[in-house]
Amino acid sequence: MTALQDKWLELADVKDELAVRDWFMGTSGNLAIKVADEPLEFLVTASGKDKKKRTDEDFLLVDANGQPAVETSLKPSAETLLHCAIYGKTSAGCSLHVHTVANNVISELYGDAGKIDFQGQELIKAFGLWEEDAVLTIPIIPNHADIPKLAHEFESSITADKGAVLIRNHGITVWGKDGFEAKKLLEACEFLFQYQLALQLHLK
Ligand SMILES: CSCCC(=O)C(=O)COP(=O)(O)O
Ligand SMILES: [Zn+2]
């Protein structure tokens, strides 16, 4: 099996698992996985597809600028530049973007603060934060319609080889060393968001 086939299958499996969770409503979301470093090439989801279906046209290979690396009729995700920012700035191998009700509501509730902090939560250990007083901070950036502008602001929020950024009233993007780690971080974030929303309801 070639590296390309191997990475294709890894990303397709992650996509199927996120689809089972119903995290691709209305064709939203996009996923990427690095295939080569020099020159940088990664697979990204084709734009506008129903990501709940598994097909031979789910992904295409793009370069460091998000342009197709091979002749294809497929269009890369409209948000490919955000994935470019991750691979350009970190050693991450996989990046995932999903829209959920929980991540959208949290991004709106905490958007003016520009971040949400989690402390004293077991699941922040998914990010490697094992100390008792550790804090997981997830930045929240505005949802610019202009994708190069959004990607530029997003890039400023990337500070480590694994992480998460919320885009206000849009969704979340996470990245990690491979599909397993990126999915783990995404699931941890969604757990923390759902917890926070349930707690706020309870406290009312
Ligand atoms: C219908 S969702 C609006 C676009 C978006 O935010 C998204 O995540 C999906 O865009 P893509 O081009 O990757 O299909
Ligand atoms: Zn999106």
Automatic annotation (TrEMBL):
E.C. number, please? 4.2.1.109
Q: In which pathway does it act?
A: Amino-acid biosynthesis; L-methionine biosynthesis via salvage pathway; L-methionine from S-methyl-5-thio-alpha-D-ribose 1-phosphate: step 2/6
Q: Is Lyase one of the keywords UniProt gives this record?
A: yes
Q: What cofactor does this protein call for?
A: Zn(2+)
Q: Which reaction does it catalyse?
A: 5-(methylsulfanyl)-D-ribulose 1-phosphate = 5-methylsulfanyl-2,3-dioxopentyl phosphate + H2O
Q: Which InterPro entries match?
A: Aldolase_II/adducin_N, Aldolase_II/adducin_N_sf, MethylthioRu-1-P_deHdtase_MtnB
Where in the numbering of this chain does the Class II aldolase/adducin N-terminal domain appear?
A: 9-197
* Binding sites annotated in the UniProt record for Zn(2+): H97, H99
Recorded hits in SUPFAM superfamilies, A to Z, give: AraD/HMP-PK domain-like (SSF53639)
Instruction: Name the Pfam families on file.
Output: Aldolase_II
Q: Which GO terms describe its molecular function?
A: methylthioribulose 1-phosphate dehydratase activity
- Which purpose does this protein serve, as stated in its record? Catalyzes the dehydration of methylthioribulose-1-phosphate (MTRu-1-P) into 2,3-diketo-5-methylthiopentyl-1-phosphate (DK-MTP-1-P).
- Protein's UniProt name: Methylthioribulose-1-phosphate dehydratase
Q: Which organism is it from?
A: Planomicrobium stackebrandtii
